[in-house]
Amino acid sequence: MTERPLQDITTVELVGYDYFAKELGVQLRTLYAYASEKNAQRLEDFPKPVTPKGHRQPLFTKADADAFLERRRAGSPTGKGRVRPAALTADQKAAAIEATAILGREINLEDRNQVREAIYGDLALPVVRTTKETGLPSITTMTLKKLYKQTGNPFLQQVLIYRGIPAQPVND
Fold first, then answer.
1. CA distances from 138 to 34, 66, 105, 142, 172 (A)
2. 99-125, pLDDT tens digit by residue?
3. Which residue, of 31, 45, 60, 81, has the greatest Cβ tally within 10 A?
């Protein structure tokens, strides 16, 4: 495996994983997965560090980081690692309003804990899958798609629409 030659970094602005995390609004462990050569979540277009391999804190040129961030915000054909732009689409705004109406109370669809409480607490929907780390009911998009297919619950439909997944009404 060939390593990147060291660049003259005295005139280049450098950033670390924390910069990516802040800009994407994700946890550092998510970025480690994106950058890892061994993780299944590895993103092939994640920038290569300018620091030597094995360096304790890999650093990246800000230009490479910004280019990657722009691509992530624009989305990807597979949806893997897609980051929603700051502005919501009209469909997402409508889905958020409809989800609030269905639930009968305000809810932030970006807040995973509120979504979990609404689905498994307020609506008492069945638990399809739990998380490995905490054992809490899962609210991943894949799990919600499966649960929506089983139940046809309109709240789940709105959550999926908000997440950018086309969710057609389920026919009984």
1. 21, 32, 22, 9, 25
2. 999 999 999 998 889 999 999 999 999
3. 60
